[in-house]
Write a structure and sequence with these properties.
The structure holds two protein chains of two kinds. Chain A is mainly α. Chain A is built from nine helices and no strands. Chain A starts with a helix and ends with a helix. Chain B is of the alpha/beta class. In chain B, the strands form two sheets. In chain B, strands 6-7-8-3-9-10 form a six-stranded mixed beta sheet, with helices on both faces. In chain B, strands 2-1-4-5 form a four-stranded antiparallel beta sheet, covered by helices on one side. In chain B, helix 6 links the parallel strand 7 and strand 8. The longest helix of chain B is centred in the C-terminal third of the chain and has 18 residues. At the A-B interface, helix 5 of A face helix 2 and helix 3 of B. The complex binds adenosine-5'-triphosphate (ATP) and magnesium ion (MG).
């Protein structure tokens, strides 16, 4: 039993090591990506733009729920005016980066892993190597950087639409004062504490999810089962990493240690 | 020993190659010479490691010991940049074709040109159509790889392998899955590429007949060793039992059709 545990630990450290090497090579591909922005833009389209619809609809509903819940609690204290602050702060600080990252992992991360894994299983990556085209630079790097760039933008869309959703419910349906909703929000939300920290979070999430996704794809066993397992691992590990990192980052940013 | 075998006129030389997969020795001290400008065939039963050999030559796998020289350079001592530089001058036709499934036939053939050259679009179009014409698939340029038959995919892969006019091409089973007509065309094409461009070709094949008509030299591999080598004529006249069995395709002989297995009747009765 201890032997099994030890073995599993060793294996995961070994994988972490391989993953770090792989990340290093991928980051090295930035020059190739910079030299051919067309590749990056095509990937931003498939990784990012195709996720916008999902993010928008989800952001809308999350914002509407926040409006409803927030109103019920705040009205007990007669503080409905601060609804805007509550909705915006929870979205920008937490829900925007985290929920959009989870959605991103499920929608785009899994697709990246499956795509790269399948290219490996069908020998396309090895064929490319023999054509003297480095698949890490040509296939992996553009996808990775597209993920890193898209994530903060998606989180921003999520938060913005969420605030509008909260406004729709709070002001439109429950009768909170329109002016108070916006002015309280503007007065209380801080550029550095709230907005910038949210952006930093989503950058970190985008980096980690994209890393996990491309590495799992590249490292998958070249079989249908191998690819399907790698895809599952991407979603599970990404979600886990996002939640843990969110706690750590929040503690670093807002905690008074 | 003629000049080719001394190693001087050889584009690719394999020396004392040892390669293992797990505990199994795929190659156990193999020496091979591939003379420049000639067609050399590798034959051998399925699973002896012919594809593995091509991957070793291309630098995708590392030998456990021994060395492989391509154009005077030790493939496995090269840095990444030099290895990629060398690969630009090697073409390889994969057994599975390995076409990029997201690109159509035209774009697949254009892929190496777009990656490695700065040719204008009009030039790429002309070159791609010439390569496709050579393999008889100019009309299929707009099809996606999923819409091709196995044999057609192989021919597109061949067009792609010759896209950059390499100094050598490694063909992994170019004839399997081809009808007699395209087989004849392929044999002629491989010959023409060799004669007109002075390419060095390595052909892996099971087709004894086609290989005999095309190859200048044949190696027969089995169980990690070279069991026969020579011109097609000399091998056909060879007195070695193994070579005879392979050249005539007899099911019984020193070569076994079956992968290592326990006794059949015992296996069934357990
Ligand atoms: N990825 C791998 N892992 C472990 N063993 C492998 C792997 N790939 C191939 N082998 C083993 O190596 C041996 C040689 O395989 P290879 O594909 O080179 O055979 P081949 O001579 O090309 O056969 P064929 O004529 O059927 O294509 C086989 O016995 C196979 O079991
Ligand atoms: Mg093979």
């Amino acid at each position: 039993m201890f032997q099994r545990l030890g073995e599993a630990t060793l294996n995961s450290f070994e994988k972490l090591g391989r993953g770090s090497c792989f990340l290093w090579f991928t980051l090295g591909g930035i020059f190739d990506v910079a030299a051919r922005p067309g590749l990056l833009i095509a990937q931003i389209y498939s990784v990012g733009v195709l996720t916008v619809m999902l993010i928008t609809v989800s952001g809308m509903f999350v914002g509407m729920v926040l409006g409803l819940q927030g109103y019920t609690i705040l009205s007990d204290f007669g503080a409905e005016e601060t609804l805007g602050v509550m909705v915006a702060a929870s979205l920008v600080r937490e829900l925007g980066p985290v929920v959009s990252a989870l959605l991103f992992a499920g929608r785009a991360g899994s697709a990246l892993t499956a795509e790269i894994g399948l290219m490996k299983a069908t020998e396309q990556l090895s064929g490319m190597e023999m054509m003297a085209v480095d698949p890490v630079k040509r296939i992996v790097a553009p996808r990775f950087f597209a993920g890193v760039v898209s994530m903060p933008l998606l989180a921003a869309i999520f938060s913005t639409v969420g605030i509008l959703g909260g406004h729709l419910v709070g002001v439109g349906m429950l009768g909170v004062d329109d002016g108070a909703f916006w002015s309280q929000m503007q007065a209380t939300l801080d550029y550095r504490d709230d907005i910038l920290n949210g952006v930093v979070k989503s950058l970190v999430f985008g980096f980690v999810i994209s890393w996990i996704a491309v590495f799992e794809g590249y490292d998958s066993l070249p079989t249908s089962e191998g690819v399907s397992r790698a895809t599952t691992r991407t979603v599970v590990h990404s979600a886990f990493a996002v939640l843990v990192l969110d706690f750590l980052l929040t503690a670093l940013m807002f905690g008074d240690f | 020993m003629d000049e080719a075998e001394s190693g001087a006129g050889c584009l690719v030389t394999v020396r004392d190659l040892v390669f293992r997969r797990g505990d199994r020795k795929i190659f156990d001290g193999v020496n091979l010479d591939f003379p420049r400008g000639k067609i050399t065939a590798i034959m051998g039963p399925s699973g002896t490691g012919k594809t593995t050999l091509l991957r070793l030559i291309g630098g995708q796998l590392r030998p456990d010991s021994g060395e492989i020289l391509v154009d005077g350079q030790n493939v496995h001592a090269l840095g990444n940049r030099d290895l990629y530089g060398l690969r630009k001058r090697m073409g390889m036709l994969f057994q599975s074709g390995a076409l990029l499934t997201d690109l159509n036939v035209f774009e697949n053939v254009a892929f190496p040109m777009r990656e490695h050259t700065r040719l204008p679009e009009s030039m790429i179009r002309i070159l791609v159509l010439m390569k496709l014409q050579a393999v008889g698939l100019r009309g299929a340029r707009n099809l996606m790889p999923a819409e091709l038959s196995g044999g057609m995919a192989r021919r597109v892969a061949l067009a792609r392998a010759i896209a950059l006019d390499p100094m050598m091409i490694m063909y992994d089973e170019p004839f399997s899955g081809q009808d007699p007509i395209s087989m004849g065309v392929l044999v002629k094409l491989i010959h023409e590429l060799n004669d007109s461009l002075g390419l060095t070709s390595i052909v892996v094949s099971h087709d004894v007949h086609e290989t005999n008509t095309i190859a200048d030299k044949i190696y027969i591999l089995s169980e990690g060793k070279v069991v026969g080598e020579g011109t097609p004529g000399s091998l056909t006249r060879s007195t070695s039992e193994r070579v005879q069995q392979f050249m005539t395709g007899a099911p019984d002989g020193p070569e076994h059709f079956h992968y290592e297995a326990p006794d059949y009747s015992e296996d069934l009765l357990i």
